[in-house]
Specification:
Helix Hairpins, single chain, alpha+beta, binds zinc ion, 4 helices, four-stranded mixed beta sheet
Amino acid sequence: MSNAPKTDDHAKLLVALQDIDRMLKEVESNSGAELKEMGFNLDGVEEVKKARARLAERVPPQLLNRYERVSKSFDRSIVPVVQDLCTGCFARIPTSFRYEKNAVMTCESCGRILYFA
Ligand SMILES: [Zn+2]
């Protein structure tokens, strides 16, 4: 076991952020009346937005900017690497990327943010 100080896992933070953003997007694409019919508690949305802001504060600004930029082009902007493939575009990821496990990498083919699951 290492005694190194525990730092935030940025990829995990971004994945959580993406889940929230996808949920908010879905909520915002429906009208409030429709959502109430579905039994959705709209007060909860404000809470989720606050949670998103707290989460975003823990992501380094540079990375957050990258995430926001990539999010404009893709439904999923951060994707796991599975068997050396980007699961966004299925391009092969150079094996050297694996040695930078803690770094948040970008797929050279599609530009999505990658993480190692
Ligand atoms: Zn890709």
